[in-house]
TrEMBL record:
This is Alpha/beta hydrolase. Residues 82-335 form the Serine aminopeptidase S33 domain. It comes from Bifidobacterium longum. Keywords: Hydrolase. GO terms for molecular function: hydrolase activity.
Length: 363
């Protein structure tokens, strides 16, 4: 599927003058109460220490209606409704970071639902430090995303396919959802998923070390060497990415204190490692029925590639359908790369979602 990309030389101007006004006309902001989904999964709900407007413990989301978008008659819009896509974002991210991708999905005929995971964006948090992400149990992330997709996501799909797009941490959560809720999604894209985080040491050593630190009371302390958010833009660590896109994301962080999550608590790392072990359980992988397309970044410094390969192979061994598309020169966020990389990446995603033969293979 051919896509017309936003000109990087006019990126901020196009986002401000074209994309954001259109998104505002078809956007619904809401709050999802995850307590029922968490109780169904055997998890006791948390109220959250940050109570905004009486929404204690609730999760913030943004949803975009394809029909309302089509009524705007944006150039390039397909005007053919294809279903809905639920987006599961990455570590320290937020819904508005995905505005450009949402725009492309809307042009292709999909409604889009973006849930902000617990501890991110405007959703409930459980630590005072706004820059730090903490979670008590990785299974809470999974129950929340599944509950959101089963209710809000299905509502926007309106009987048409419900697809999943995940990135990084959101990809690890998404992989676990596919294992535990095998009929929930029609197709799933895992973009540089956190099947295993890059810890700078062997995963077994990291498990022992982080487990010991949490046992000593460091669970809600910031991981050594990580810092809070500072309003100083830099491309360090993102060399080769689109500077226009990186500057736009950074501007959003600077303008919204809720978007300034920037570091991990030790307990978050411990739960990420527990999630890794659960995802790669062969019997869990054998439960996956949803066709999976996994995108891998060759220059990834945040998640490990070999566990992604292992996950795909285990899904195949269990009778599922899963394939890898590798971008050897890409950084972790493929959707933050220049158009020369982003365009073929996006076209492969849309082609995967649109392919009726792959849909048939799921049943």
């Amino acid at each position: 599927m051919q896509v017309t990309m936003i000109d990087e030389n006019k990126y901020a101007e196009t986002m401000t003058d074209v994309v954001l006004p259109a998104l505002e006309q078809c956007c619904e902001e809401g709050w999802f109460d995850p307590s029922a989904a968490e109780r169904s999964a055997g998890i006791e709900p948390l109220s959250g220490i940050m109570d905004t407007g009486g929404r204690s413990g609730q999760l913030h989301y943004l949803c975009y209606d394809s029909a309302k978008f089509d009524a705007i008659r944006e150039q390039g819009a397909t005007a053919t409704f294809r279903g809905a896509i639920v987006i599961s974002h990455g570590f320290t991210e937020f819904a508005e970071k995905y505005d450009e991708l949402v725009w492309y999905f809307l042009l292709a005929g999909y409604s889009v639902c973006v849930l902000e995971h617990r501890g991110h964006g405007k959703s409930a948090r459980d630590v005072d430090n706004r820059c730090m992400v903490w979670i008590d149990d990785w299974q809470r992330y999974v129950a929340d995303l599944a509950g959101f997709a089963e209710t809000i996501g299905q509502q926007y799909a309106a009987g048409m396919p419900l697809n999943l797009f995940c990135h990084s941490m959101g990809g690890g959560i998404g992989a676990a959802v596919l294992e535990r809720y095998p009929t929930l999604f029609d197709k799933a894209v895992l973009s540089a998923p956190m099947i295993a985080p890059a810890t700078g040491m062997p995963l077994g050593v990291a498990r022992v070390l982080v487990g010991a630190l949490c046992g000593l009371g460091f669970g809600k302390k910031r991981v050594f060497g990580q810092s809070g958010f500072t309003p100083e833009f830099s491309m360090e660590g993102n060399e080769g990415a689109s500077e226009a896109r990186e500057r736009w994301y950074f501007k959003l962080r600077c303008e919204n204190s809720e978007y300034q999550t920037y570091c991990a608590a030790f307990e978050w790392v411990r739960q990420a490692l527990k999630l890794n072990r659960a995802i790669l359980n062969p019997s869990a992988c054998a439960e996956v029925e949803t066709p999976v397309l996994l995108f891998q970044s060759g220059r990834d410094i945040w998640v490990l590639n070999k566990p992604q390969n292992h996950f795909v192979q285990l899904v195949k061994d269990g009778g599922g359908e899963a394939n890898i598309v590798r971008f050897p020169e890409s950084r972790h966020e493929i959707f933050s790369m220049p158009n020369s990389t982003y365009k073929p990446y996006l076209e492969k995603i849309l082609g995967f979602y649109d392919d009726p033969m792959i849909a048939c293979a799921a049943y």
